[in-house]
From TrEMBL:
Protein name, entry field: 2-iminobutanoate/2-iminopropanoate deaminase
Gene3D superfamilies documented for this protein: RutC-like
Gene: yabJ_1
Family annotation (InterPro entries): RutC-like_sf, YjgF/YER057c/UK114
Protein origin, superkingdom: Bacteria
EC number(s) given by UniProt: 3.5.99.10
């Protein structure tokens, strides 16, 4: 098992890993991002996820499951173009949940589960 940290403040405060690699899979914790609006935050969260996946030995094409969490479901649609760009021809199974996040300044949180490159190719 491999644990990946992004150095985020909440990882240390709460006690979790940005991602965990186990059993041929990568489990990326929910990611938020800084920005003035939901699309800027979505882009920042996707960048954090992309870095974690790369460090683990995976990428967006190998994501099998994604969960989007937003305090206001009406803000989800502006993110769709960014999500289509990230997942491209490899759309994962997905769920969107309307809920409170750890800090009211956050407009979206995204978590993913992906296969490792070796597991996907084998």
């Amino acid at each position: 098992m491999k644990r990946i940290s992004s150095g985020g403040a909440y990882e240390e405060k709460i006690g979790y890993s940005r991602a965990v690699v186990a059993g041929g899979m990568v489990y990326v914790s929910g990611c938020v991002g800084d920005g003035a609006d939901v699309t800027a935050q979505c882009a920042a969260a996707l960048a954090t996820i992309e870095r974690a996946l790369a460090e683990a030995g995976s990428d967006f094409a190998r994501v099998v499951r994604v969960t989007y969490m937003l305090p206001d479901a009406a803000e989800f649609e502006p993110c769709w173009p960014l999500l289509r760009e990230a997942f491209g021809a490899h759309p994962p199974a997905a769920t969107m949940i309307e809920c409170g996040l750890i800090d009211p300044k956050y407009r979206i949180e995204i978590e993913v589960t992906a296969m490792l490159r070796e597991a996907a190719e084998g």
